[in-house]
Amino acid sequence: MTETQTKKLKGIAASDGVGIAKSYLLVDPDLSFSYNQKVSDLDNEKDRLDKALADSKDDLQKIKAKAEKNLGKDEAEVFEAHLTILSDPEMIAAIQAQITDNSINAESAVKNVTDHYVATFEAMKDNAYMQERAGDIRDIAKRIISHLLGVSLPNPALINEEVIVVAHDLTPSDTAQLDPQFVRGIVTDMGGRTAHASIMARSLEIPAVVGTGNAIDNIKNGVNLIVDGGAGDVLVDPNQEEEIVYARKVGEYYARKRQQAELRDKPSQSADGIHFDVNANIGSPKDLDAVVKNGAEGIGLFRTEFLFIDSDHLPTEDEQFESYKAALQALKGKPVTVRTMDIGGDKQLSYWKLPKEDNPFLGYRAIRISLKQDDIFRTQLRALLRASVYGDLWIMFPMIATLQEFRDAKKIYEEERDRLVKNGTKIADNIKLGIMVEIPASAVLADQFAKEVDFFSIGTNDLIQYTMAADRGNDRVSYLYQPYNPAILRLIKHVIESAHNEKKFVAMCGEMAGDPVAVPILMGLGLDEFSMSASSVLPTRSLMKSLKVSDMKELAEKSVNQQTNQQVIDLVKSYQK
């Protein structure tokens, strides 16, 4: 007797692992209302609006707290942005004006104003930051209207049995409430690997398949599902044989994790004994526990902008000093690479309004702000210099496009160092000074930069999207976010060779550094340091242990001479077999 044919959905492999459980459809309730309904008691409508805004803020404060507990402060920052929008006096005034001027109900006023914002932001096709804000506005509008109607939104935080969450899309507020103890997998119609839901799923270590296009239409509530987050497959109502096969895969996945845990205190080296540094990325000292727990050999990226984002004021020199000191002490002599403030683009501060720009990702951000408003830069550099005596400090400047920018930044650094030394402040004498290579111009000119910097750190997230002219957060062009495209690999090869020709060190701190398809190629290209999320350190160390650099050099050479992203993927798979 043959088994019945199982329905299989294909999507994007967003978070590794296998989940087996019943489906839990996360669908919105009916939020319909009488549009542009005329009202006579305008004060009552404004009171209703005020209460709905207050209740929405209360919701978001609770969601943010849960997100910080489950995901850490970095991932919870999106809710601070939502709270800022909810408190925006211009938006609130516009909604109130709609009620007053048109004598309409509060629901309609909220819809009219937020629809206008969404349409405006979505029209900015080349502005990723503003397009992301459109999604935030939709999420916020839905929450306000639900309170006006007295209707409860789905509350993923209340899930108390093992399920696989199925949704058209998951907002950041939905994902932050998921408890990995009960949520065994995530399936969505929308999204890509770099969407909020995908990033959070990886942080929570929940298997996820996104971008299926039609999961909601093909999956009923309570049906058995299998989610293979490594392959991008979703099996709907699997037969017994398939359940047995995938149950074995679950066991294999956890067995791998146990084996990887045994490598916690082991060096990262290839099968033929070549050593690599496998480090972790952090956003604040609160992330240090995960770095130590996973046995990282250092911190390859300390994103200091989160010290600014998490504060309600520009952090003082002493406040920054304490954070840098804590990181250096926790690593006990292992290297700590600190990126100077990378504010701008999608990282905005509530207390410091940057000028509005048509394309903030290509605008006034990172080192460009630091060089223009050098009082803030100098404060940060003094804090770093003072902390340097507590460990092995490496400092890197973000978004460097020209040699003159690096020289100007280095000059300010040297001025502050000399000033502190003259005042009798102790400073380490082995501080390394480098740059992020994330702009194609600096990658192409790496042979010249290598004569002046101490090290490079390749930021692949931006390097890929700038090289391919494709916003990594835009679903319409997500097919162009190609980490293995030979054009990207050739840039990386050039940067590594340029560094090594000058006997300089080269690291990578973008998501590609922990990508199991990319790691073999990067080993073959001779990358010195791989820095990634702390949860990826042990899987990467385990992968390296199984590969010979002599073979990976051959793979790397073939990879850079392929024609397409897919050809490179296929080539890596053939070597892994």
Keywords:
577 residues; alpha/beta; Glucose Oxidase, domain 1; Enzyme I, Chain A, domain 2; TIM Barrel; 8-stranded parallel barrel; 14% strand; globular
Query: Cα-atom Rg, whole angstroms?
Result: 25 Å
Instruction: Count helical runs.
Output: 23
By CATH reckoning, the class of the largest domain would read Alpha Beta
What about the largest sheet? 8 strands, mixed
The CATH topology of the largest domain turns out to be: TIM Barrel
Poorly predicted parts? none
Q: Tell me the overall shape.
A: globular
N- to C-terminal separation? Answer: 34 Å
Share in β-strands: 5-15%
Identify the CATH homologous superfamily of the largest domain.
Phosphoenolpyruvate-binding domains
Number of spatially distinct domains: 3
**Second-tier CATH architecture of the largest domain:** Alpha-Beta Barrel
Structural class: alpha/beta
Describe this structure in words.
A hairpin with a 4-residue loop joins strand 7 (224-228) and strand 8 (233-236). The longest helix has 30 residues, at 42-71. Helix content is 48%, strand content 14%. With 577 residues, the protein is an alpha/beta fold. The chain folds into three domains: 7-26 and 155-258, Glucose Oxidase, domain 1; 42-149, Enzyme I, Chain A, domain 2 (Orthogonal Bundle), CATH 1.10.274.10; 274-576, Phosphoenolpyruvate-binding domains (TIM Barrel, Alpha-Beta Barrel), CATH 3.20.20.60. The protein has helices at 42-71, 73-86, 89-102, 106-122, 128-149, 172-176, 196-204, 215-218, 240-261, 288-293, 305-309, 317-330, 367-372, 374-387, 403-422, 440-444, 446-449, 460-468, 486-501, 518-525, 537-545, 549-560, 565-576, and strands at 7-10, 12-15, 18-25, 163-167, 183-188, 208-210, 224-228, 233-236, 277-282, 299-303, 335-339, 392-397, 432-437, 455-458, 505-508, 529-532. The strands form two sheets. An eight-stranded mixed beta sheet has the order 1-8-7-3-4-5-6-2. It has 23 helices and 16 strands. The mean pLDDT is 90. The radius of gyration is 25 Å and the shape is globular.
